[in-house]
Amino acid sequence: MTEDLSPAERYQASRIRAAELATALAPFRELYEFELDPYQIEACEALEAGKGVLVAAPTGSGKTIVGEFAVHLALQQGRKCFYTTPIKALSNQKFADLVKRYGPDKVGLLTGDNSVNGDAPVVVMTTEVLRNMLYAGSQALRGLGYVVMDEVHYLSDRFRGAVWEEVIIHLPESVTLVSLSATVSNAEEFGDWLDTVRGDTEVIVAEHRPVPLWQHVLAGRRMYDLFEEESDHGGRGTARREVNPDLIRLARTENQRTYNPRDRRRGKMVREADRERERRQRGRIWTPARPEVIDRLDAEGLLPAITFIFSRAGCEAAVQQCLHAGLRLNDEAGRRLVREIVEERTASIPGEDLHVLGYYEWLEGLERGIAAHHAGMLPTFKEVVEELFVRGLVKAVFATETLALGINMPARSVVLEKLVKWNGEQHADVTPGEYTQLTGRAGRRGIDVEGHAVVLWQRGMDPVQLAGLAGTRTYPLRSSFRPSYNMAVNLVHQYGRHRSRELLETSFAQFQADRSVVGISRQVQRNEEGLEGYREGMTCHLGDFEEYARLRRDLKERENELAKRGATQRRAEAAASLEKLRPGDVIHVPTGKFAGLALVLDPGLPAGRANGPGHRGLEYHDGPRPLVLTAERQVKRLASIDFPVPVQVLERMRVPKSFNARSPQSRRDLASALRTKAGHIVPERHRKGRSPAADDREIARLRAALRAHPCHGCDEREDHARWAERYHRLRRDTKQLERRIEGRTNTIARTFDRIVALLTELDYLRSDEVTEHGRRLARLYGELDLLASECLRDGVWEGLNPAELAACVSALVYEARQADDAVAPKLPSGPARAAMGEMVRIWGRLDALEEEFKINQAEGVGQREPDLGFAWAVYMWASGRTLDEVLNEAEMPAGDFVRWCKQVIDVLGQIEAAAPRDGSTVARNARKAVDAVLRGVVAYSSLG
Description:
By secondary structure, this protein is an alpha/beta fold. The strands form six sheets. It has an eight-stranded mixed β-sheet, with helices on both faces. Strands 10-9-19-16-13-15-14 form a seven-stranded mixed β-sheet, sandwiched between helices. A five-stranded antiparallel β-sheet has the order 23-22-21-20-24, with helices on one face. Strand 25 (765-766) and strand 26 (769-770) form a beta hairpin. Helix 17 crosses helix 18. The relative contact order is 0.07. Mean pLDDT is 83; it is low at 230-239, 258-270 and 610-619.
């Protein structure tokens, strides 16, 4: 079209082209076989102009290209670039990509258990490694020009998110920050904060998916589209999308089933007709089995697919179901290639471990193109699955949601079995953000024309609710930043207390809290106007109705107080009766999930009470928690909530010494004996006593005052009372809002002050001086940093051999996936057991101190109780036992075992660095413990 331009316009266009070719972006664009998207070009131009950038774009849209341009700029300018990722697997993947482009001399890798060419100009690392460098004042920071923070939305993570903010706040001003995030609804707010703490930052938000995503629901044999497009059926435009009416009808039909087998009022013929209708309906609607789903996707050309199952056991079961169904997704050539790759990647695994790791079953699935992917797998196995999937040799992967966290494993289709997942505390609905993250894997750029998200039909599914999930593309980024003990001593050491406090005030958490105060202040003003109106409505011509309303409230509060006091007294009586229980008592559990006959196996007395001679059971801080065998053969740890009234001992019987709570046969035999012994006994009903309110003088006085008040005789008394109640509620809400305004101002700094006060009490800090103990704490990173430091200070681990030390250290890192109080964890005997007992006592002392200084674990600050559940497993492993023995004894998947071992190794390394050198055995034995744990399956999984 240049021939249509005037000479002046052609000259101007040539100058623009020449200027573009002179930029660093021009040669960078030549590295890619495709044209960069407008948002990528915009971000790269901002970077070249010297600005920081925040790029928020959908999963799979190529935002890492902006991070790679920062690497390109650093190398061109002779400066360093650190590329940070949230997880080691992602670091390993990005390291391999950059080595392929720039060569091994220019790229390094630093993770918790890997150090490759750390002095290179480009270093890929986990975010924690960079945080530790900043606090240590590492020489590696010299010449640093760019830091790329991939998956920066991780700062919402309540366990690790604070690390991202620490890095952003503490990076030198000369460093340009590149922040790459999933699509979040408050990117501008986050960008404003980055602008405040890092200087000029360009915010680039891309909503467009490069590969369009189609949403489906698979019910029975039919695949329904979730949306009915009014126009633009390719789903690429901005057509208004309506929920598919066929799906709405399907859900309505499902909900209108009227047959209820308990309904005895209806005739037999009607019930038979209902049953027949339900049978016909079920013939059309069902949740397809996993092999059926894969078969259907294969037939429609929608493989490779990732099926998200929110359970590790479910993922493994899915693979077995597909194998038993005879699914084969690879031809003979593919099978041979799979075997070659697998044998090459697993050549370092000793033959005797292969059977223990389930290698042959895993290999059979891979050869057929089917695999699981979850955190319980050996890291080497997961890496092989990822490689084979990317190469198209594994076509169906059953994964937990951890796969969605940045690993580059795009698929043509993503399947969600359910829209409910266990979040560690309860079963909760999948959030719009999680749905977007999971389905974002569907559609491979440059390979697929479109991606497909398939949700399996479940009874009770609401298509409109699902459409809301699928249509909500964004979710807000919320800071999880909280000061920690380690952070406090490091900050005071570098900046002093006053400057540290100011730095923490610049956190994103405080930035969000301060912004939220503006809206609350406006609400307070509106409430004040409302209070005036309510005050007029409750005005009574006979007297002061506000005074009368206060008497009514005082009476109600007094009655409630007495009712609560009665409930407290009943709970105390119940707790006292629980403390008298002994092993062998037959009791009746009055309420709860396990109501009925039960046999006491262990009284579970509170901490500090004797559990009996030689008893080594668990102690509890929230009252007695008896371990019982129910008549239904279940062994459960009960709580005080199960006993609203005092417990009755109905009978006594002997608990055999050979009884094993883990053995089904043992439980069955003892439960049978229990039913025989006491099944006929009917417990006495608990009689309620006279209500305390009946004889209370204060209640009698308030009732008399009410009757004597002038407003008591008003004809409109109840109307006035309603206005008075509204006035009282609004005034109470307004006071709460005012307290929130006060509480949200300087919240982070106040928490920091409390932490500093506690550390000063323990002699870790003296004003702006960090003591010797504080310098030790500064080297200990982790959730239980202060507990580890106190154990070193008190010499708790002195004299332990390496295996015993590893067992003790495991309590600092391990957290059971689900609390299981039924059986006390097995522990090593001798010095290790004594040391672990001392660790728990020190934690109890720290816990009391945190309560005194108002440091609240519920807010993400403070020390949780050490978990001894992994101590026996790591002790056996460090003592040289075989993998087969350890995994059988620990009842733990290999992947979990390796992951916890690596975390133990990490903390052992910190303890070696922090332990005293003079006359102490801890540092030397920590080094030996690392060597003892880093062997076999743990050593050859070092890239996990």
